[in-house]
Amino acid sequence: MRTVNDVSKLTGISVRTLHYYDEIGLLKPTACNGAGYRLYDDKALEVLQQILFFKEFDISLKDIKSIMNNPNFDKEKTLINQKRILLLKRKRLEGLISLIDDILKGDNKMSFQEFSKEEIEGMFQSLVSNMNKEQLGIIEENYGDIDHFKDVFVTNAGSEEAQRNFRKVMEWYGSKEAALDAAENSVSSDILQSYQNRIAEIFKKISALQGEDTTSFEVKKLIGEYEFVSRQLYQMKEVKPLLLELAKQYMENEDLMKANDEQFGKGASTFIGKSIIGYYRK
Question: CATH topology for 2-56?
Fold first, then answer.
């Protein structure tokens, strides 16, 4: 058993932070000695390690607690997903370094070809593997079975419109390979939901500032936070093209405008779109 000071020295986490984790029920000590000092065993340290992994992806403490308390939480699968994301980030950095070297040599070999049927089927398998039982149940309820859903997915993904969208995705990610890597190593449904919750909170705060200049400090600060979360969610180094495309949809797509306005208040969708554009305007 280790004291809170021992754990602090071992992990680099402050004693104050460990006390706070205890207070919010995120990491409870294994026991307390007669003097009331917190004690932690190896199992508690494993929990702390998992918390730190989640924090590396900028997930809020509230969402970390919710994920880890979920009875369907699969520690091994989550660690595998986290490792894939970190490896993807390392690979992307290595790819960017290689790309810069090619550009400096005058030899830019970026590829923006559309996805093949085999690659689309691979994306489908990755999509399904990250779904929970509830999501799979909804699909079976609506499509009869997973095989039928796969047929619909592959057919729709092969349409001309979908291929145009794929070209946009490849441009956002920088290459076809990077886009496929992101699709094949997407985050789990629980982590995805935590990102979506955080973005919803940001949008709520932006919407509350309607009437202010979209280029004001407060608005830009929130859009900057949205940009940061989006980089984590979409596993992109540069999300500007994607967010500008979303801004356009927030102001032009009637269904999306209606959904945003219902969730965040009348006029919210247009204001959010204009705020994103204002953030990137020089």
Answer: Multidrug-efflux Transporter Regulator; Chain: A; Domain 2 (1.10.1660)
